[in-house]
Write a structure and sequence with these properties.
Elements lengths: L11 E7 L6 H9 L9 E8 L5 H11 L3 E6 L4 H11 L4 E4 L5 E2 L3 H12 L3 E9 L16 H4 L5 E2 L1 H8 L11 E4 H6 L11 H12 L3 E12 L12 H21 L1 H10 L1 H17 L4 H15 L9 H13 L7 H19 L10 E5 L3 H13 L6 E6 L7 E2 L2 E5 L10 E4 L5 H12 L4 E4 H5 L2
Parallel strand pairs: 1-2, 1-4, 2-3, 6-9, 10-11, 10-14, 11-13, 14-15
Antiparallel strand pairs: 4-8, 5-9, 6-8, 7-9, 12-13
Helix pairs in contact: 6-8, 8-9, 9-10, 9-11, 11-13, 13-14, 14-15
């Protein structure tokens, strides 16, 4: 049983924003009451009732009768960010943990987080999560969606937050407030809070934590259980406000980095976090509203220009000009002068050709295995034929899991374990997230037998 007296020093404050979650709240609270290995770890639970209109407050009040460590704060509906900020203000614990009221903790999550953070004097501890819920299968959510062990490994290295971003974005970037355990004085010292009245606030907080943190550690334990359910923030249909808030969060994160320092801003820019947020904004907004509000779309263009440069002369690396090209393409280059569109397209294709022409795809004497059957693999072949010319090499697709299918894109599909049955000269790894894992697989199975080209790392594609 978790409990404390008023005079006892609190080690961990668990902050729970609560809004109309009567169906799930008791299960969430039970996952706290049933924590084990809690000897000498005193906790307080701060539940912020954010204007619930169902029985959520009643459930909290009943729980409070049995658990004196539960504090209830009620307010008018202000949103999750504001509710969490109220919790931060009231917290007394040395460490703070944010728990969503429709999710759960695994049995010893708090004790593990506390002991690891204490032992290593951490600012931020990151960990993984399971997924469950009635919409998990329907949405095609994979079991490993919030698991990073395969791409990071059992690494227990302690590093600063910026180094973590540089090393592991995007392969291990899960910006959820519920997968973070952090020190309260670290938040206070750096004035770290959630933006209020805005969706996607977890992204802004996560970035800010890593901008400031000197000591960050990742552990591969799954200590959190994320539920996929109807009508949650994560699963609800896109709205205009949600799309617009993606743009706001991008600007918010960029301003945060600039305010902290030039080094942080440059690192954030180079990780492509902001590029991917802007592309997500453009895809979300255009899929529903098209180009009907050109003035607003130009605000997105302006933010991209503010971060990555406003003229074609400033886009001197392929990553940047390819990003600008893709951003404008989503809106069919609406609002962009025709001459500028032509110049951007020509420069992007020229730089892409210089990259792709180095790949051994134009030599008919070569046998090339493409390891990966996702978007990157498809894009490489399409781009090569578009900007370089016909593919003359013999192409095999390679995958770690090959069932009954023996072909992909009308080309042979083979298992990574059976390459000895084929004559292959080069292997192109076509994956960002699993690039390190794929490279490791090749080395373990075949040593240095094959020339390996990593498209994401070596060519920044």
């Amino acid at each position: 049983m978790i409990g404390r007296q008023v005079t006892v020093v609190v080690q961990v404050s668990i902050i729970i924003p609560v809004y109309n979650v009567e169906k799930y709240l008791e299960e969430c609270l039970d996952s706290i009451w049933n924590q084990y290995n809690m000897q000498d770890i005193t906790t307080e639970i701060i539940a912020v009732n954010d204007g619930s209109t169902d029985n959520s407050l009643y459930i909290l009040q009943n729980a409070q009768k049995k658990h004196s460590c539960l504090e209830i704060i009620s307010q008018n509906n202000c949103g999750q960010g504001a509710a969490r900020n109220i919790g931060i203000q009231r917290a007394q614990g040395k460490y703070i943990y944010f728990l969503d009221a429709d999710d759960c903790l695994t049995g010893d999550a708090i004790s593990k987080c506390y002991k690891i953070s204490e032992k290593n004097n951490l600012d931020v501890l990151l960990f993984d999560a399971y997924v469950f819920g009635e919409l998990k299968e329907g949405l095609g959510i994979k079991d490993d969606t919030y698991m990073r062990k395969e791409v990071i490994g059992n690494c227990s290295n302690i590093m600063c937050g910026i180094e973590f971003l540089k090393k592991y974005y995007p392969v291990a970037y899960n910006p959820s407030a519920c997968m973070v355990f952090t020190r309260r004085d670290f938040l206070s010292k750096n004035e770290i809070t959630f933006p209020e009245g805005i969706y996607h606030e977890d992204i802004a907080l996560h970035n800010k934590l890593l901008f400031y943190a000197d000591r960050v550690q990742y552990v591969s334990d799954c200590l959190y259980k994320r539920r996929y359910r109807a009508d949650s923030t994560v699963t609800a249909k896109p709205t205009k406000r949600k799309a617009e808030d993606l743009l706001r969060i991008t600007a918010y994160s960029w301003e945060d980095a600039l305010n902290i320092g030039e080094y942080q801003a440059i690192c954030l820019k180079n990780t492509r976090i902001l590029q991917n947020l802007l592309i997500l904004w453009a895809n979300t907004y255009s899929s529903i509203w098209g180009i009907e509000d050109l003035d607003y779309i130009k605000e997105g263009y302006a933010l991209a220009g503010k971060i990555y440069g406003k003229t074609i002369e400033e886009w001197n690396c392929f990553c940047d000009i390819n990003f600008i090209y893709n951003l404008y393409s989503i809106f069919d280059f609406a609002g962009i002068d025709n001459d500028v569109q032509i110049s951007i397209t020509e420069k992007r294709n020229r730089m892409l050709r210089d990259i792709l022409i180095e790949l051994p795809l134009g030599d008919e004497a070569m046998c090339v295995g493409i390891y990966g059957t996702g978007k990157m693999a498809n894009r490489i072949l399409e781009d090569y034929e578009k900007v370089v010319g016909s593919i003359k090499a013999n192409i095999y697709f390679i995958d770690s899991n090959v069932g009954r299918n023996t072909k992909y894109k009308e080309r042979p599909l083979i298992n990574i374990n059976k390459l000895n049955d084929f004559q292959i000269d080069y292997i192109l790894i076509a994956s960002t997230k699993y690039e390190a894992v794929m490279r490791k697989n090749i080395k373990l199975l075949y040593g240095s037998r094959y020339e390996v080209i990593c498209l994401a790392d070596d060519y920044k594609l």
